[in-house]
Amino acid sequence: MSNLAPMPVDLVPHDARWAERATHEAARLREALGANLLEVHHIGSTAILGIVAKPIVDLMPEVRAIAAVDEANDAMAALGFCAHGEFGIEGRRYFTWVNPASGQRELHVHVFERGSEHVTRHLAFRDFMCALPTEARAYEAEKRRCRDLHPTNSRAYSEAKSPWIAAAQERALAWYRDRGR
Predict the structure, then answer these.
(1) 120 in a structural domain
(2) Alpha-carbon separation of residue 53 from 30, 33, 137, 144 (angstroms)
(3) 92-119 pLDDT, tens digit each
(4) Would the pTM count as exceeding 0.90?
(5) Distant-in-sequence, close-in-space partners of 1: CB < 8 Å, separation ≥ 6
(6) In a domain, 2, yes or no
(7) Structural domain includes residue 7
(8) Confidence of residue 4 (pLDDT cuts 50, 70, 90)
(9) Residue 67 is part of which domain span?
(10) d(CA 6, CA 17)
(11) Domain total in the chain
């Protein structure tokens, strides 16, 4: 387990290749997580069409048993992923992947057990932003505002946008539940 140092906040226009990368990486995660893996979701800003994002693809595998993920750490490491344990969210297993050629972090993997409230929260937020362009544009504006406040510190950037995201998640969860999900 390692500490992740803050990095500069680089927001770039949406890139259609992010969805392709998510599909490719989901197949690699199936290799490492095996029969424990149920489904892999593309989440985060790179999954929301048309808004700026840090060029880091976030994936959320759902698994049968979260404890079994710890047993897959060596298989994940063989694919270049670094394990960070729960990293501040109980019930999560968090991994990062850094491109060895560029030294840039390109993947975040947030593993949760099926039925976790965090799965619902992430899917609701993603689907809400994708379905409502005005919400997505407001999120983009908040991302830009926080980047301008903390251009060299990704951790401070994330903390600055947390209150906005918490409020948006409440709206997203209500919207999601209204659709029977």
Answers:
(1) yes
(2) 26, 27, 12, 9
(3) 999 999 999 999 999 999 999 999 999 9
(4) yes
(5) 83, 84, 85
(6) no
(7) no
(8) confident
(9) 17-178
(10) 25
(11) 1
